[in-house]
Amino acid sequence: MTSSQASTPTVFDVQRIRADFPLLARRVHDKPLVYFDNANTSQKPLSVIEAVDNHYREHNANVARAVHQLGEEATAAYESARDRLARFLNAPSRNEVILTTGTTQSINLVAYSYALPQLKPGDSILTTVMEHHANIVPWQLVAARSGATVKAAPIDQRGELIVEKYVELLTPEVKLACVTHVSNVLGTVNPVREIARECRKRGIPLLVDGSQAAPHRPVDVQALGCDFYAVTGHKMLGPTGTGALWAKREHLEAMPPFFGGGEMIREVRFSGTTFAAPPHKFEAGTPNIAGFVGLSAAIDYYASVGFEAIHAWEQQLLHYATERLREVPGLRIIGEAAEKEPVISFLLEGAQATDLATLLDLQGVAVRSGHHCAHPLMQFYGVPATLRVSLAFYNTREEIDAFVVALLKVRKLLL
Ligand code: PMP
């Protein structure tokens, strides 16, 4: 997807990439679509759409139950998503990858199966002020049941985690530490390796919410040195209702199952049921088979473009969009960390974020307004909502220009 000549720098052929994403050609309110809501969910390349379609046309059957040809094909396709995810995350073993419906389920699995059985009054779970509710509320729920507490590490005004404070909060009663790899509101990239090193020194396991990192950068769970890593498929070109939890084998072996039912057992007797080994112990019931076929195609698509090229292009877009937004009078960017993925939250003096987003939509621009499932972060900045632009590698500088023109237009209407 990238072309390079010996003497010229690599060119990112974004138009060629855009041709792979049918939805990007749509018009909205009779305007060309500018889709800047990628942190919410990404668009899907044709290869993903066709893989799902082809699965239902040619291979549909349930997994791990039938010995017939279609059952074998469906099982092989589903299990190959696990292989791809294991490679994508550089997991030491495919058996450490649990296929889930997304990050929310992945984190709840760790909350109820790993944390709850061991939490007791006086224990705590450490998270941060910049987390998505999915990395806060499950911990509050299991804390309420066990008498444990949830602590939150602070951030600074630039939207960077204060790592020394996080480390100070890693006290002996902390049974699990949590952190997002990349903030869905600020774009901040957290120093996960460093945090993991500090956690390891203290014998505290670390869970990383990788929802907003995996679509932008290569993830290597072994190099990061964490214990749990959660990803969600629909933000990384895949279908909704797909995702994964990678966890160290020792944890998965010790964890009791979360959901009970078919496929997760060895033998069921009323005198006592025995369970399958991980990963199947955590995958009760019929999964989103076609969804994982699509997610496999999504991972292949990333491989065909390459994260090096994706990162370089997205950083160009991030810098260009940041510069252009700084030209807009009365605009304040929330989140100016030194290392960011292409997410920009901002406020516009005198205008409500939701009104702006509604008017931008009429100009064909899709952005997100609101609290972004991050109430504590909004409380930290003392605002009810922000407007968020989140970019992907299929976006262009021309779209950023069109967005700024639209923003200036709606600003005039509102002020
Ligand atoms: N964590 C982060 C950082 C997110 O951005 C999101 C989605 N907005 C989630 C968790 C939840 O992901 P899902 O709804 O796909 O489970």
Q: What does this 3D model show about the protein?
A:
This protein has 415 residues and is an alpha/beta fold. The chain has two domains: 3-44 and 306-414, Aspartate Aminotransferase, domain 1; 49-303, Aspartate Aminotransferase, domain 2 (3-Layer(aba) Sandwich). The chain is built from 14 helices and 19 strands. It has helices at 14-18, 46-59, 69-88, 103-115, 137-146, 163-168, 192-202, 221-224, 249-254, 289-305, 307-326, 353-362, 375-381, 397-414; strands at residues 2-5, 8-12, 27-28, 31-32, 34-35, 97-100, 124-128, 149-153, 174-180, 206-209, 228-232, 243-247, 265-267, 274-275, 331-334, 343-348, 365-366, 368-370, 386-390. A seven-stranded mixed β-sheet has the order 6-12-11-10-9-7-8, with helices on both faces. Strand 13 (265-267) and strand 14 form a beta hairpin. Bound molecules: 4'-deoxy-4'-aminopyridoxal-5'-phosphate.
